[in-house]
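ok trying this again, last paste got cut off
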Amino acid sequence: MINVLDNGFVRLVDMMGDDSAIVQAARTSYGKGTKTFSEDRKLIRYLMRNRHTSPFEMVEFKFHIKLPIFVARQWIRHRTANVNEYSGRYSEMKNEFYLPEVESVRKQSLTNKQGRDDEELSPNEANEFIAELEKSNSLQFESYQNFIDKGIARELARINLPLSIYTEWYWKIDLHNLFHFLKLRLDSHAQLEIRLYAEVIAEILKEKVPLAYEAFEDYILEAVNFSKKEQIALSKFCSNFDLNDETLLDLGLDKREITEFRNKISKLQNKQSM
């Protein structure tokens, strides 16, 4: 179990498959071929690079996660998982609320309507905000507990609890869709709180499926897409492209990747005539 935020955690409960399961599934389609570790790595990288996603769906992870409800509402937008959540109808909610760290309390960004600004508030302003949250949480949970003590149905007593209260769920997802989740939630524009959970899950995947995660990092997470007009602009800089194969090999590209890379450069160069 790995702690996240002040009261949350991520716990890997179970998994089915690993890097070898991805290769095994791919070989069903490709027939006899790769068998060594290095060839397995090349195959996984080829699959990721060319968006052959179904072999990655053969690997599944099941997590037990404790998280604030406002994070859960963002998380549940990823509708490609199986989820079973703690029920406030059957069980009493726990007196556990998320309170942000002082350094993470920021003003609203003027350029990003969904996020906070980079500039920190003064410690006094941040502490005042956190104190108000703590006071409000305490009052609302006390009200909730009074309703429970008076015999009000749990499904009604809970409805005034704030989004900062913690919930728990079991979350099962295949590796292909988990990579999609991480692509979005590891991004610097993702909300800090959900990004911290994504970072923990990413570390788990690095350990459990190192070859697949390496390929994901190289070809998806750290990759950049260019629009048609951006490619035309880039073509202006590619007219004198002269990197030799030895240089590209030193940069970590294999022979197949070098061929694919040169084809991409050729396409960019051709856009100059458009």
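PB: full thing came through this time. The longest strand covers residues 8-16.
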